[in-house]
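Q: Here's a chain of 229 amino acids. Please give me its 3D structure as C-alpha cells.
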Amino acid sequence: MNDKAVVLLSGGIDSTTTLAIAIDQRFDVFAISFCYGQRHKVELEAAKRIAASFNVKSHLMLDVDLTAIGGSALTGNLELPKDRDVEKMSAEIPVTYVPGRNIIFLSLALAWAEVLGACDIFIGANAVDFSGYPDCRPEFLAAFEEMANLGTKAGIEGKKMSIHAPLIKLTKAQIIQKGLELGVDYSLTLSCYDPTDNGRACGKCDSCLLRKKGFQETGIPDPTVYHKK
C-alpha cells in the first residue's frame, strides 16, 4: 500500500504539476481545494477537472470565506493590477496577497492529513517566478513544518509531518516542462485572477503574464483561451 499525501490543488499550473509529482512519487493522493471568496472562483472548476483526470483518491472542497477579513484584491474591491512588468513582480508584495491564506490552507490540509493518517503535504509554492508572496518562501514552509510537528498528535507521537514544495526553486518554464514530462494536460488548468464568467483568462493580470512567460520560454504553445477585448 502506498503512503497517503494531501495535495493543495487550486487548479493552476503550479498546484497541478505538484499533484502530478506526488503521484509520480507513488503517493496515494488526496486533493484539497478552497472556496475562499476569491474573485476567480471559476478556478475550482479547473481543480475538479484536474482531480478527476488524475483519478485522485478523494477531492475535498472546503468553504473558507476570507472576504470578511478582506485586505486583498482577490477577496475584495481593491483594483487588480494589470500589465505589470514581469521582471519587477517579486520586488514588492502586491495587493493580490491574501493575508494568512497559505497559513490557513496548510493548517486545514494538516488537519485532514492527520485524520487520514497521512504524513505528507504537498503545496505548489514557488520562490522564483512568483508575485512576491511571503507565504511562498522556503523559510515559511520550514517554519510551518516545525509547527506541524509540535502541534499535532501525530507529530508528538513521532510520526513526522513533512511539507513538500517540489517547485520551490523552479522557474515557471521549468515547472511546465516537468509537468509535460509527467503527462499534465495544461489545457485543463486556469491561472487567471480575473477570468470571465465562462472561464476565459484575462491575459493581463500577474498570474496570466507569468503563465505566458513560462510557455514562451519553453517554446510550447499556451493552451489557454484568453479573453479578447
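Q: Can you summarize the key feature?
A: The first helix runs from residue 13 to 24.
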